[in-house]
Amino acid sequence: MICLGIESTAHTFGVGIVAQDGTILANQKMVFVPPKGGIHPREAAEHHEKNAQTVFQQALEEARLKIQKIDIIAFSQGPGLGPCLRIGAVISRYLSQKLKIPIFGVNHCIAHVEIGRLFHNLKISDLLTLYVSGGNTLICAFDQGRYRVFGETLDISIGNLLDVFAREAGLPHPGGPKIEKLAQAGQKFIELPYIVKGMDLSYSGLLTASINKFKEGNKLEDMCFSLQEIAFSMLTEVTERALAHTEKKCVLLTGGVAANKRLEAMIRIIAEEHDAQFYNVPPALAGDNGAMIAWTGLLHAKNENSLSMDETRVKPNWRIDEVKVTWGA
Ligand code: AMP
Ligand code: MG
After folding, report:
1. Ligand 1 test: best mutation among 153, 162, 165, 267, most atoms within 8 Å of CB?
2. In this structure, which topology does domain 2-112+285-322 adopt according to CATH?
3. What is the pTM of this model?
4. CA-based, 20 to 30 A from 93: which of 3, 15, 131, 310?
5. What is the CATH T-level fold of the domain 124-283, as seen in this structure?
6. Tens of pLDDT along 17-51?
7. 107-116 pLDDT, tens per residue?
8. What are the Cα distances from residue 221, in Å, to 169, 178, 201, 216?
């Protein structure tokens, strides 16, 4: 069985093709970079619409497959930006009907966890995941049939915090990698608000304070260093508490922000202190991509019926814990 998966929740339009045994046959994408400012949902959707055909062809070429060889279609049904999600959904519905093959809707956050689990060959019950990206900040673990949320942001995501601060400081998008580089030259720690509420985090106050302190004349390198230390310590505190509570054997770091070496070092330390194995997902699979959607589609297809056309409506606010994980132990 071969699944073609479409990712289109935000800036990335991706098409992945994955075989039943987990072999990734193709993983192609094009990423929308806003000419200035943040990501406007309609502009990103237009980008996806314009490039879908090209990415689709590239994926089939990479897999050396004809479209008739695809057995099922999976698409990112949410959470994400409505206009972007709808592009992926419309293409998926069309393919499903045209090729007369089943269609499955995939939760984007679950797909991030599942592709990391596939890559490192980890047991679902062993795993605590920290998923940090442009749109999400989530600490979750599988328990009794679902991925349960142990901590999450109450407002903006960690990636958004970094990208918006970078923009205000005159750095190009995406800001995360630039902040990481500048932070290495930071020497002075500047006090900034550290906001953890129970198991949840809040980044909007930290963002405003960071912008203000930068405008007061603090050096950009020192700001980047301090911002990273505070924002990542908040993530580390909550992840550690979730780990102490669940006693999981493995910690998985994924999402675009997982590329950050300072964050990786911090999470690795708490994993080791709790005798858990630390795993990072390589950037090609940690950022948004179609292969993770295709692979999760295959997991759904094992024990579930495909969606009717009515059920393929997109779910911009779909939470990870709303999904029954039928392939879990
Ligand atoms: P995603 O939404 O998963 O594709 O991830 C995109 C986010 O990852 C953006 O907010 C980027 O700024 C962020 N990002 C990418 N590389 C790094 C890095 N080295 N350090 C921090 N953030 C990063
Ligand atoms: Mg993502």
Report:
1. 162
2. Nucleotidyltransferase; domain 5 (3.30.420)
3. 0.96
4. 131
5. Nucleotidyltransferase; domain 5 (3.30.420)
6. 999 999 999 999 999 998 887 889 999 999 999 99
7. 999 999 999 9
8. 11, 10, 24, 14
